[in-house]
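Why does residue order matter? Because the sequence determines the fold. Keep that principle in mind as you read this record.
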Amino acid sequence: TDEVAAIVRLCNEFRVPVVPQGGNTGLVLGSVPDRSGAAIVLSLARLNRIRVTDTVNNTMTVEAGCILENVQNAAAAAGRLFPLSLAAEGSCTLGGNLATNAGGTAVLRYGNTRELCLGLEVVTPQGEIWSGLGGLRKDNT
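Structure:
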């Protein structure tokens, strides 16, 4: 995240557009720069760690470049289910899933990707790191 912040800060200073790219599986070309040649493509492939698997609270903290299939496997190894399932699960990333609010095959039961997300850590356009990572979702109903 620190490296991404430094790059974004520099690009902001020199007014260079940034196009973040994850698994590059999107059909709408959202991770492809325009033809101006002015933008940089910022690959998030190295942000691929599963930071925490918390079996007590049934939560995971993963990085944006983490492949969906790896998240599913880590959840299964902990005796849990990560319910998002897509045709591109072997190459799509959680960052891209969140950006597009992917639904997948179990969307009616578990909701879209954003319903599965409790918090985010983001790099602002100014290159600052903002942490809004959350914990357990309180649900008294």
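Strands lie at 18-21, 40-43, 50-54, 59-62, 120-123, 129-132.
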